[in-house]
């Protein structure tokens, strides 16, 4: 644990700062978009590498010949291993094949602009040389190398931003319990001070484990302030406080942290009005786990990158290196494939903002300022339209030009009642045939997208979750591949609405297609239909089903007194009797 004097002095200063907890009073910005140049590199980056690495890579999910479920970094908890027994893993941790330069090269070649590595996960083991514990890679293992120092140098060399994941929850530290929490909080602040003092400029402090009951919003705000005082330009995620609502990862406006952190999902509409980053595994476990072969396909991974960017977010894609210090070949292969596409098409991702469409059937759309008055819409085409007519639904704009991102040549367009059509060749051009997705850029002046109202089809009006407007901060559309419903309806203030064109004045029988877990869901709500000379409301009770994925159609009754024309249909919670109201797949209106 030898350290140059300067480092020690700087570190001592940080310790003082950290230990007394007295830092400049600072209103901590919430993830609501901070007009802050500090975030510029992060918003430009759009894609980062998450690295979960530690002692858990050795047992890799198996303990005393029993393979445990769940991610491998949770083995200490899953197998109920006492700290004194678990820490003995350190004596065998000797990742002789660790090569920081190789890890950075893999990230760069994948098109990743930053790396977030676990300086300490919940098991308390530190991948860095900490003066505050011997339970670290320098003192407790035969390896005796400061992995984070080596990674810091390799990142500086490679032009990749280094960021740290640090767990607030700690299953090993003797003070990390209710009765002695202040002592542990000081230890935590001291280690955060070390990380922000001894490893050069740090891009992001990525906190986790904030759900532990001893941790409070006030401690989170103070820890945020500490980070910014030691490195004013560091970005801090919303898990520094208590703002994350489960895996949804978003934060109310007054929560500390600079960005929201949805996990293992891309929110249906993104998280409008805030910076956010979805973190994802490439298989199932964050840490290396033997037998975890549920690898996402190259297409699924590329779609995740494009979907996240099309909704205005970043993607943090995880690798779990082995106990020998190697990133698994399955990860390396997928990242290399992603990197090929990013090298040719990265302009459609880096530095872009959310596209103007809720969704398009053929792929994803991102947006970038094209010039003084123009905007470039990047059309990322996965599914080639058989007739070559690529529809941008509801788009009203002045099209300036349409061209291939990767090759010369412009394309014809036309404005139709359904939106703008880009005329493509009947099939993907030969030179792009190898691509999973090809990019056409549509240069436009002014962007208006008219969401088409719901119209009578096959004798009924089907108001689908995918077409709903969600007014609120927690309820959101859960995409087709999961439940195709409005879920996470945790706040009674959140409501769901549709615009509907009533074809005539007939009475309407109203039913709802819903699911609700008997223990976690329930409550009362109102369906309201309001328009010119039109109104009607029905109050209803959520019906418990077998669970969040078990949908039933429930008839709510009939309403009359309508006039033909546009109306707004809203589902408004009246009271929530549990954690969430319900999962709503559709409202069905049947003219009588
Ligand atoms: O419990 C951790 C988990 O092990 C993993 O680190 C993920 C990654 O974001 N975070 C927590 C679960 O939300």
Features:
28 strands; binds ligand FHN; globular; alpha+beta; disordered N terminus; 5-stranded antiparallel sheet; 7-stranded parallel sheet; 592 residues
Helix content: 10-25%
Fraction of residues in β-strands? 25-35%
Mean pLDDT: 91
List segments where confidence is low: pLDDT < 50 over at least 5 consecutive residues: 1-29
Give the strand line-up of the largest sheet: 7-6-5-4-1-9-8
The radius of gyration computed from the alpha-carbon positions, rounded to a whole number of angstroms, is 26 Å
The dominant shape is globular
- Separate helix tally: 10
Structural class by helix and strand composition: alpha+beta
Distance between the termini: 80 Å
- How many beta strands in the DSSP annotation? 28
Largest sheet: 7 strands, parallel
Secondary structure elements and their pairing?
Layout lengths: L4 H16 L19 H6 L1 E5 L10 E2 L2 E2 L7 H4 L4 H4 L13 H10 L4 E7 L26 H12 L2 E7 L13 H18 L5 E5 L8 H14 L4 E2 L40 E4 L17 H13 L3 E6 L9 H17 L7 E2 L8 E7 L4 E8 L7 E5 L1 E10 L7 E5 L2 E5 L14 E12 L11 E4 L4 E3 L4 E3 L6 E3 L7 E8 L5 E8 L7 E9 L2 E8 L10 E8 L5 E12 L6 E9 L1
Parallel strand pairs: 1-4, 1-9, 4-5, 5-6, 6-7, 8-9
Antiparallel strand pairs: 2-3, 10-11, 11-12, 12-17, 13-16, 14-17, 15-16, 18-28, 19-22, 20-21, 22-27, 23-26, 23-28, 24-25, 24-27
Helix pairs in contact: 1-7, 5-6, 5-10, 7-8
Q: How would you explain this protein's 3D organization?
A:
The protein is α+β, with helices and mostly antiparallel strands and 592 residues long. The strands form seven sheets. It has a seven-stranded parallel β-sheet. Strands 10-11-12-17-14 form a five-stranded antiparallel β-sheet. A five-stranded antiparallel β-sheet has the order 19-22-27-24-25, with no helix packed on it. α5 crosses α6. The protein is globular, with a radius of gyration of 26 Å. The structure holds ligand FHN. The site of ligand FHN has 7 residues, from loops.
């Amino acid at each position: 644990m030898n350290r140059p004097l300067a480092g020690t002095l700087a570190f001592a200063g940080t310790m003082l700062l950290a230990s007394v907890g007295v830092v400049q009073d600072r209103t901590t910005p919430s993830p609501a978009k901070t007009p802050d140049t500090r975030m510029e590199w992060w918003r430009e980056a759009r894609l980062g590498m998450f690295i979960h690495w530690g002692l858990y890579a050795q047992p890799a999910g198996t303990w005393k010949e029993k393979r445990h479920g769940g991610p491998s970094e949770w083995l200490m908890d899953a197998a109920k291993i006492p700290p004194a027994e678990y820490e003995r893993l350190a004596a065998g941790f000797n990742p002789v094949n660790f090569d920081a330069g190789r890890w950075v090269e893999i990230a760069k070649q994948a098109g990743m602009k930053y790396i977030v590595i676990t300086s300490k996960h919940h098991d308390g083991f530190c991948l860095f040389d900490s003066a505050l514990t011997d339970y670290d890679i320098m003192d407790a293992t035969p390896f005796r190398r400061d992995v984070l120092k080596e990674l810091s140098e390799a990142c500086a060399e490679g032009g990749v931003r280094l960021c740290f994941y640090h767990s607030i929850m700690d299953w090993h530290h003797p003070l990390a319990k209710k009765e002695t929490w202040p002592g542990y909080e000081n230890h935590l602040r001291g280690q955060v001070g070390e990380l922000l003092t001894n490893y050069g400029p740090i891009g992001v402090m990525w906190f986790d484990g904030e759900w532990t009951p001893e941790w409070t919003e006030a401690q989170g705000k103070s820890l945020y302030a500490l980070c910014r005082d030691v490195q004013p330009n560091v970005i801090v995620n919303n898990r520094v406080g208590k703002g994350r609502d489960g895996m949804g990862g978003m934060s109310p406006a007054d929560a500390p942290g600079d960005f929201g952190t949805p996990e293992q999902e891309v929110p249906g509409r993104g998280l409008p009005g805030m910076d956010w980053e979805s973190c994802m595994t490439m298989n199932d476990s964050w840490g290396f786990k033997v037998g975890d072969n549920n690898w996402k396909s190259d297409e699924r991974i590329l779609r995740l990158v494009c979907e996240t960017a099309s909704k205005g977010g970043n993607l943090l894609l995880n690798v779990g290196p082995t106990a020998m210090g190697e990133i698994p070949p399955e990860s390396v292969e997928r990242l290399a494939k992603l990197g090929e596409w990013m090298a040719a098409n990265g302009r459609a991702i880096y530095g872009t903002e959310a596209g103007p469409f809720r969704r398009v059937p053929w792929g994803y759309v991102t947006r970038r300022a094209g010039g003084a008055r123009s905007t470039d819409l990047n059309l990322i085409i996965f599914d080639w339209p058989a007739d070559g007519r690529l529809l941008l639904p509801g788009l009203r704009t002045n099209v300036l030009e349409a061209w291939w991102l990767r090759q010369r040549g412009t394309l014809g367009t036309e404005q139709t009642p359904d939106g703008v059509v880009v005329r493509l060749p009947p099939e993907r051009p030969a030179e792009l045939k190898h691509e999973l997705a090809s990019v056409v850029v549509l240069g436009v002046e002014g962007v208006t997208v008219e969401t088409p109202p719901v119209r009578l089809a096959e004798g009924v009006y089907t108001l689908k979750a995918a077409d709903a407007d969600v007014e609120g901060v927690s309820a959101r559309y859960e995409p087709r591949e999961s439940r195709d419903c409005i879920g996470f309806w945790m706040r009674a203030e959140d409501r769901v609405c549709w615009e509907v064109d009533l074809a005539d004045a007939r009475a309407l029988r109203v039913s709802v297609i819903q699911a609700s877990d008997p223990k976690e869901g329930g409550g009362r709500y109102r369906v309201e239909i309001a328009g010119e000379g039109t109104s009607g409301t029905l109050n209803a009770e959520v019906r418990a089903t077998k669970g969040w994925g078990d949908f039933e159609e429930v008839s709510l009754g009939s309403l009359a007194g309508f006039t033909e024309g546009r109306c707004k249909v809203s589902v408004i919670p009246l009271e929530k009797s549990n954690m969430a109201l319900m999962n709503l797949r559709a409202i069905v209106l049947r003219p009588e």
